[in-house]
Amino acid sequence: MADPERFDLVVIGGGPGGYVASIRAAQLGMKTACVESRSTLGGTCLNVGCIPSKALLHSSERFATTRDHAEEHGIRIGEVKLDLDRMMGRKREVVDGLTKGIAQLFAKNGVESVPGRGRITGPGLVEVTTEAGAVRSLACDRIVVATGSESAPLAGVEVDEKRIVSSTGALSLETVPEHLVVIGAGVIGLELGSVWRRLGARVTVVEYLDRILPGMDADLARQGQRLLGRQGLEFLLSAAVRGAETRPDGVDLRVEPAAGGEAEALSADVVLVAVGRRPYTEGLGLDELGVTRDDRGFVQVDERFETSVPGIFAIGDCIPGPMLAHKAEEDGVVCAEILAGQSGHVDYDKVPAVVYTAPEIAGVGHTEDTLREAGIEYKAGKVPFLANSRGRAIGETDGFAKVLADARTDRLLGVHVIGPMAGDLLQEAVVALEFGASAEDLARTVHSHPALGETVKEAALAALGRPIHV
Predict the structure, then answer these.
(1) Which helix (H) or strand (E) holds 203?
(2) Cys-Cys crosslink for 217: which of 147, 157, 325, 367, Cβ 3.0 to 4.6 Å?
């Protein structure tokens, strides 16, 4: 075998964490190679996750809005028909354009893209095997593992991507199912359940817990369930799926109360398993090298993203922290800068989370539950979009904004929004939290009028006990 090619850095994984780390490292002067097993860059997020799901969410929302609400705006269209093939085609076009864009960014920044499956065979050595079986050896000073995550399995429910699907299969259904059962009321389950409900499916969401969106503010979750229920999603909470039997034309599920009790049958045309994600580190050779992982499979790293084996680093979904694409990107930037001798830090307590349903649901920082658990005294301000002039003008008045601040110092502790463009509205709160702002700071910031963001300002005023418009 020929001598291995030499690099300063080899990144294994071309998803949001890996490709961003590769580009930043190259910008900082490192000769960088990025190994990716898929034929296209972008990882799960771009290929079969965040981006295609948002494309379908947007298209399906436009379809439903045109069908159900056009006449409210004085627009008469007639019968609205679904062209699912074209909708799926648009989704593919979006994904294709963005994956090609990453390849262009690699070329621009001098990152070498290495197709194939990577395995760390020793300190500073990566062996890459292509689909055709060819092997390429890379030598480097340091290695970054950025292999992301995969859908978590559910005992007794075997995914075949036909009748029982993961998020990947749910993004590519060829027809609208008559009845879709979603197992899991987290972000993925609610987003994809919303897509297919808008397109005409009956959707039942089965959740083991007694609430949807665990980890998000309970107030938002309650309002979200109410609004999604009004859109036609059915919820079966405190319920456990114990088994599934596939038929040629559907699936029969065995569902029991989570606390125990008599099982009931639930039938569907298609079942989506969306019970979370787990780190993907299969075939990397980590165990053989002695890289420490926790009992959930997450790679353990220090504040510099270095693993228990010197010279091997890890970022993104395969390490502890929020399993979100934007968190992985920040990991990638900071890790590359640390490797270049700079300093950096990602505060996982200030990473925003967004659910792209309609309305959107978003939050950053503490929730009321986490503040109570920590024994922190706080004050809350909550204002509905019904009081917002822009919301009234565009006919988007569902939801509210909530600001949480320290009862003594007024420092912002958390901001939560359910309503139109909630994910974008939340960003000013993320900046405010990063800079240690107070509710008073947010309340005294001039906001455009009429604008949806005024609801966040008004919620800050409400936390101070002096709202103007409610």
Answers:
(1) strand 202-206
(2) 367
